[in-house]
Amino acid sequence: MTGESGGGPTALPRVVVVGGGFAGLAATRALSGHPVDVTIVDQHNFHTFQPLLYQVATAGLEPADVAYPVRTIFGREPNVTFRHGRVTKVDLDSSHVQLADGSALPYDHVVLATGAAAGFFGVPGAAEHARPLYTLGDARRLRNHLLATLEAADAHPERFDGGAPTFVVVGGGPTGVETAGALVELLDVSVRRDRLRIDPARTRVVLLDMADRLLTAFDERASRYAEDMLRARGVDVRLGVGVADVRADGVELADGEWLPAAAVVWAGGVSVDGTLAATLGTARGRGGRVVVGPDLTVAGHPEVHVVGDAGAVPLGPEVEGTSPQVAQVAIQSGRYAGQQILAALDGRAVAPFRYRDKGIMATIGRRSAVAQVPHLPVVRGTLGWLAWLGLHLVYLIGFRNRLTVLLNWTWRYWDWPSGPRLIVADAESEP
Amino acid sequence: MTGESGGGPTALPRVVVVGGGFAGLAATRALSGHPVDVTIVDQHNFHTFQPLLYQVATAGLEPADVAYPVRTIFGREPNVTFRHGRVTKVDLDSSHVQLADGSALPYDHVVLATGAAAGFFGVPGAAEHARPLYTLGDARRLRNHLLATLEAADAHPERFDGGAPTFVVVGGGPTGVETAGALVELLDVSVRRDRLRIDPARTRVVLLDMADRLLTAFDERASRYAEDMLRARGVDVRLGVGVADVRADGVELADGEWLPAAAVVWAGGVSVDGTLAATLGTARGRGGRVVVGPDLTVAGHPEVHVVGDAGAVPLGPEVEGTSPQVAQVAIQSGRYAGQQILAALDGRAVAPFRYRDKGIMATIGRRSAVAQVPHLPVVRGTLGWLAWLGLHLVYLIGFRNRLTVLLNWTWRYWDWPSGPRLIVADAESEP
Q1: Which of A8, A58, A68, A39 is nearest to A397 (CA)?
Q2: A431 CA to chain B: closest CA distance, Å?
Q3: pTM for this predicted structure
Q4: For residue A74, what is the DSSP state?
Q5: Which of B282, B289, B241, B242 is nearest to B119 (CA)?
Q6: How many interchain CB pairs under 8 A, A with B?
Q7: Which of A381, B64, B348, B420 could make a disulfide contact with A62, Cβ separation 3.0–4.6 Å?
Q8: Which H/E stretch holds residue B299?
Q9: Residue B6 lies in a domain
């Protein structure tokens, strides 16, 4: 075990940020250029732009379009070091972060931004047979499976129930809605442009949710709009239905109905159970999220900050409840943790964290999206889609990524017959 | 076992093209729009632009930049069908191509364009420990290994002999020269832009060849130029040395010297042994290539055409010898087979195949390449590099690919700190 941080002993306070997602990047950015020695650790050498993973899964974008090397992001920040490795433990007693390769990083402050994992909430068979969509690896595996399934349907339609595959998406939140919409577009391109011999009338995309409407975080008109648009595009939207069992060849619904499925996409939510945050040994709330105080630190450990999906981030000092597990919360809580560390090192007090809801949006497909900003009317249709497009491009890290994504979308918009529909790999490396 | 081709019995002659590389595409293109029913089969759903694989391996390009879906290439050709599958056997007696999924495709003519595989030529340990660079999967695995090695060198320099990794490239042909040059550029970007803490002075790239000069297919001045440029960029070029043994941690040279190596890249040539072509049961020549007549068909089987790397393609009717295993031969022989099939079906005679050498080129790195066109003086330096760039862009399939490749290269030229240095996966799916 070797103690290290920034290349040796240093007079500067050491901050270890665990996780290179939205929250970890925001915390590191807030600390960049300040008199602290920051090490950001991730098991992948890249940041993933999670809101667009469904596009990678449905062959609209390439992995490199939504991923960006963490080293490159902080390449010009002399006080930030990237460390490629998997954290196995945060030792609160000795203030060390332990890595799988046997190293240990001592810290004065640690920011846990380790995210969540797909939450299967005890549905039998879901962990084994459903395909989550939370990591870049998930997206690539799902894509390869979808494309290989379409090729199999071309060559051997008789091997599918009803002569064509059915794709089931579980979960009517933004990820589920976006995936179902993009799946229909993938089928359309496959038949029309690539001349796959599958019967579009028999090939089904089913979107399931237990709630009685889609996008429950939005207002009801937005929900109805999304539902109408998806149905108009051919998605079989089923509301108020639970999933009883997921098997290799389909889904059993709570009412006993059997849906054969060539793929079950799990957009049913996330949980912190089973992740590094769950091993801290401190109090945990709903979905396994680590309970933190108004300053986003763990009780009794003002040097341990938990942000983003991993933490039960409060909405604010005078508001009851916990923030949702969305990108905006991750960015705001990460940035807050960075600022709070600088304040604590200076002996300054900071105001409690407060989530500022900047609005939510979801795209349903080409020229169709809903956007909802507080105190403003719901935007939908082409205008909503353009708002969604602009915002995602602005937030996408890296000029190259923005350009290639824009390029891809322009292609798709004009319906050019190109696009990255490659079946290239099916396993992610674990460093 | 089901007989199928283009969706059922048809009056049109059936041509099956096995392989979606340069040769298979050229044959299919020659048959497009003619009264034949063409099925092109490949185990991958994409064509790979092999000349640029070394760029994927050294993180200069993304897999999607050098790969293009076969379906999309022939999306507007009604007489061409793509079939995703692995061919296990060509049955010359019953004129069927058998697939791993149990199907069989009957043919009137078959074009075998199955390429080659890395040739290890009996060097002990090479097949197990050296890393070839012939398929997209090879390139991605090599890239992930190189990037992960650099990360390990940053975190644990003490784990490497001499405190830094050594990379060995075996083979001084175009692939070896290009890979060695690109490796030096990757190291440079990693240290200068990504601030990896590895010592550039200790990190070695060694290029080995048994011959006494690099690029033996070029004239001697081109060889010397390449050697000088590589040395000036820091590559340790060792000529006249054979490899006795490849192990997990290095290479033993024929003279007994031990070179520790974090990666051994195998650019030592290709062989047809172990590939589908080797199972035909007909006569085979050097490197296992299938012996063909002046019309590129197998003796006694005028309906069986073997083209590209898989065939011992003659140089021409009055020239002794076999064509080299390069893209130009694949393209020309594939196109010839397509034309020859049309002629045979019409009862027309065709002239024997003749290879037209349009010249060879190899890049050494930024602004440096050699190009040699018959009857012209050797072009080198920036002009050679621009010629190389232009020619590769012209041959690259698909507008999107060309644009993103150009984008990436412009980036690199101006030394912007972006680029697809992602460690994303380490295994390719086999359908």
Answers
A1: A68
A2: 8
A3: 0.90
A4: T
A5: B289
A6: 176
A7: B64
A8: none
A9: no
**Residue of chain B whose Cα is closest to the Cα of A159:** B101
Contacts of B152 in chain A (CB under 8 A): 84
Which is the catalytic residue, given B77, B178, B220, B303?
A: B178
pLDDT digits (tens, 9 = 90+) for A270-329: 999 889 998 999 999 999 999 999 999 999 999 999 999 999 999 999 899 999 999 999
Asked if residue B223 and residue B285 are part of one domain, the reply reads no
| Percent of the residues in chain A that have a pLDDT greater than 70, as a whole number | 92
Residues of chain A with C-beta less than 8 angstroms from the C-beta of B403? 407
Say if strands A314-316 and B14-18 run parallel, antiparallel, or are unpaired.
unpaired
By CB atoms closer than 10 A (0-12, 13-18, 19+), residue A58 is buried
Told to judge if B178 belongs to the known catalytic residues of this protein, a careful annotator would answer yes
**Paired tokens of A159:** 């091997």
CATH number of the domain where residue B332 is located: 3.50.50.60
B310 and B389 in a common domain: no
Whether residue B252 is found in the same domain as residue B388 = yes
Length in residues, chain A: 431
Q: How close B351 gets to chain A, by Cα (Å)?
A: 36
Give yes or no for a contact between A59 and A419, defined as CB atoms under 8 angstroms apart.
Answer: yes
A89 with A178, same domain? no
Question: Are A420 and B64 an interchain contact pair (Cβ–Cβ within 8 Å)?
Answer: yes
CA A360: distance to chain centroid?
Answer: 15
Best mutation target among A48, A101, A194 (most B Cβ atoms within 10 Å) is: A194
Q: Do B425 and A422 touch (CB under 8 A)?
A: no
Closest CA to A137 of A53, A61, A52: A53
Q: Residue A45 is nearest to which of B398, B418, B423, comparing CB atoms?
A: B423
Range of the domain at B342: 14-43+85-116+272-346
CA gap A84, B146 in Å, rounded:
14
CA–CA gap between residue A243 and residue A407 (Å, rounded): 38
Distance of CA A281 to the CA centre of its chain: 25
Backbone angles phi, psi at B391, to 5 degrees: -65, -40
* Residues on chain B touching A417 (C-beta within 8 angstroms): 72, 75-76
- Tell me whether residue A223 is in a domain: yes
Nearest to B417 among A75, A137, A193 (CB): A75
Measure in Å the smallest separation between the Cα of A194 and chain B Cα atoms: 5
Asked whether the predicted pLDDT for residue A6 surpasses 80, the reply is no
* Segment B124-146 mean pLDDT: 95
Using a 10 angstrom Cβ sphere, with 0-12 exposed, 13-18 middle and 19 or more buried, the burial of residue B379 is: buried
Residue among A68, A80, A84 with most chain B CBs within 10 A, to mutate: A84
Q: Are B233 and B205 in contact (CB under 8 A)?
A: no
